[in-house]
Design goal:
Layout: H1 10-20, H2 25-31, E1 32-35, E2 40-43, H3 50-62, H4 92-97, E3 102-107, H5 110-121, H6 126-135, H7 149-157, H8 171-174, E4 184-187, H9 191-201, H10 229-238, H11 240-245
Parallel strand pairs: 2-3, 3-4
Antiparallel strand pairs: 1-2
Helix pairs in contact: 1-2, 7-10
Length: 254
């Protein structure tokens, strides 16, 4: 997680600590994307079309609509992104209160989101799986055998939510709901229409982005093959706040 931090930003950095709580400031800096040109704030949530959204917004910011040039894909390195983080604006607190700035995020049904994280990080080729186990410090007994979805859910259930990886961290934490008052919360389940509304709201023609890909793992259509009652209950307990905060049915979609 690479971040941009100016040398003389100590005071501003400290002021952001209360806004980031209970997470760390680096999570706020990485997750919040700001455009002064179009006057919006987008807080990303991994496994909720965040790459698609960032790619689109970065293209828009650069005036490079619909390009396939990989050299501008500054998706994961904030030092190369044309979108600003909270330390790169004059007064982030004032921006949060400024009605001229459109503040939005996207969320997803927790049952599908955690499955998408598993499919992406663990149900891959052996090399990718070992890299994930090492990166997320989950090696242990799984180093020499396949990690099943039940194993993954069990491991996540024993983690402190504030210390979870951002790919499966609860969305109420990932979106800093206690500090950011959103004008719009889109849902992946209605992504095309919701993202079109966002693009229209920030003043651009959404037609150029209507064919962009959304979901890489197809998790939303694969729930039945991975869930039983026990796993459904376990996932609900992990993401209880997400279900209620964002209005998702606590029963697994059938």
């Amino acid at each position: 997680m690479r971040l941009w931090k100016p040398r003389d930003s100590g005071a501003d950095y400290n002021q952001l600590q209360c806004l980031a709580q209970p997470l760390r400031v680096k999570h706020l800096l990485y997750g919040v994307n700001i455009s002064l040109r179009y006057k919006y704030l987008y807080c990303e949530t991994p496994k909720v079309a965040s790459s698609t959204i960032k790619r689109t917004l970065q293209d828009l910011e650069l005036g490079d609509l619909g390009t396939n040039d990989p050299s501008i894909r500054r998706l994961y390195d904030r030092t190369r992104s044309p979108l600003l983080n909270p330390l790169q604006v004059v007064n982030f607190r004032a921006l949060l209160a400024d009605p001229r700035f459109f503040k939005f995020c996207f969320v997803r049904n927790p049952y599908a989101r955690i499955l998408s994280a598993f499919l992406d990080k663990f149900e891959a080729d052996p090399v990718s799986r070992r890299l994930s186990l090492k990166k997320y410090r989950m090696r242990g007994e799984f180093w020499k055998r396949e990690v099943g979805f039940a194993d993954f859910v069990d491991m996540v259930s024993r983690q402190n939510p504030e210390r979870m990886d951002l790919h499966w961290r609860p969305q109420v934490l990932q979106t800093f709901r206690g500090s950011i008052r959103y004008d719009f919360i889109g849902k992946l389940e209605n992504f095309r229409a919701d993202f079109r509304s966002v693009l229209e709201r920030i003043g651009t023609d959404p037609a150029a982005f209507e064919k962009i890909p959304v979901e890489a793992t197809g998790a939303s259509n694969r729930l039945g093959g991975y869930y039983n009652q026990e796993r459904e209950t376990a996932v609900y307990k992990i993401y209880r706040e997400d279900f209620h905060a964002f209005g998702y049915d606590t029963k697994l979609p059938r």
